[in-house]
Specification:
FAD/NAD(P)-binding domain; seven-stranded mixed sheet; single chain
Length: 552
Amino acid sequence: MSRDYDVIVVGAGHNALISAAYLAEAGYQVGVFERRGSVGGATSTAEIVPGYRFDLGGSAHILIRLTPIVEELGLEEHGLEYLELDPLFFAPFQDGDALFFHRDAGKTADGIEARFPGQGEAYRRFIDDWTPFARAVKEAFLSVPSPLELGKHFVWKSPMGDRWREALPRILRPYGEVVDHYFTEEKVKAPLVWMAAQSGPPPSEPLSAPFVLWHPLYHEGGVARPRGGSGALALALARKIRSHGGEVHTGAPVVQILTEGGRVQGVEVAVPDRALRAGADPGMGPFRFPGAEGWQAPKGEELEGAPRERYTARAVLSGAHAVETLTRLLPPEHRPPGAGEMRVGNGFGAILRVALDGPVRYASHPGPESRTAIQLLCRDRQQITDAYADFLRGEPSRDPPLVAMTFSAVDDSLAPPGHEVLWIWGQYYPYELREGGAAGWDRIGPREGERILEAFERYAPGTRDRVVGSLFQHPLWLERELALPRGNVMHLEMTMDQMFGLRPMLGMSGYRGHLKGLYLTGASTHPGGGIMGASGRNAARVLLKDLSRRRI
């Protein structure tokens, strides 16, 4: 049977593009179909304010530095240039104190010890105790989460050796309790706990200890930024795919996965009346993004009655949200039982992107090192707990802990000379508000964006006076523009009952769907959200094996 492609990839997020790049490099004919007018999904960059380039999703490239993806795919040859960041993290406090976390764990411990005697040595013990476990987690992330693989990485061939019996009780605790075991100073605890909270669960969540226990990996992989913005990773991947004969179609929303005889046959793509496909080089630019003049995403009503095109393939790999794939793109008769029970949650965080006419200056440390690092603005664990309590009530955080990034400090392509881009992530922000539901965000969005800026101003006074323009990405915005249902950047909640072999649901954790020829990748699958690419690499390895053995 003649087919249009060997593999069709739904969506052009970074995991989907990584899978497509491995498949194309192996000689398979690959077609990528993306709803938006550009590649990258939640790993993309746009000039929202003239002269300033904003990331629209993830910004800190940490986890991908623990993988061999960039080297294996030779992405430097396709324009990807990483800028190493050191210090890694900067934690300012409103009373003038500040801590730095460097790539070198010893240097970090020395700095903590100089400020808080005894706490630097505790940091050394924490790193030494949990580096083997962190390495085991990394290896588990880079493999299919089968019982055999998990057993190999965590038990039989684990770097933990015979220390499992001693370590297991702590691994099963909330991560707040693990931090309490090592440290007494709240100003040391706060940045550790706040980084752990970036996965979603609060410090008191049972079985959440791994979110802080992989902290040693930050010292091993470091933190980096692609020159030109986070979207430079997606652009390099698109170039890689095209260099091997693959095709990347933007402005081409998949509206249905085609099935016949109990197996997947291909996809149906809508062609909106608006010419989103216009442009010389799909995936390469020039781009039209949310907020940029003239950009519009194809909405559901515009796809109704739009011309359709059908493409066939041996396999379809979906990088779209698992709920989208399994409950909307598949015909009703082929939707698996239990798919609607996956927990997407009620939002997670919100991001304020700001263009400034001058650099950020922190009161506690106005030097350039603070602008290079990822900035952790959290007074103490109670601030996180209070923000989560607001979230549970269906209210935005009244006093949000923040993560700030000013990567124009190391990349002068992001802003005019002497100017700054500032991105502020806050938690926790419910998608469905107690008053007004999700639609309430259209009313309160400006107020909440201002509240985030006000919270930041306490650490860096005068920032508001430098504002040139901004974009506030609340949970409803994230759903509308980046196809993140209910505004959850992790796709599905990152709790232990939806991790490893249970992500996205029991029976589909190995990247194979329930239908022959259907495969899954992206943040909905193991190991979850964040810019890592492990899901894309793992899914490609599974699919390549099946293709080579003619299982599909």
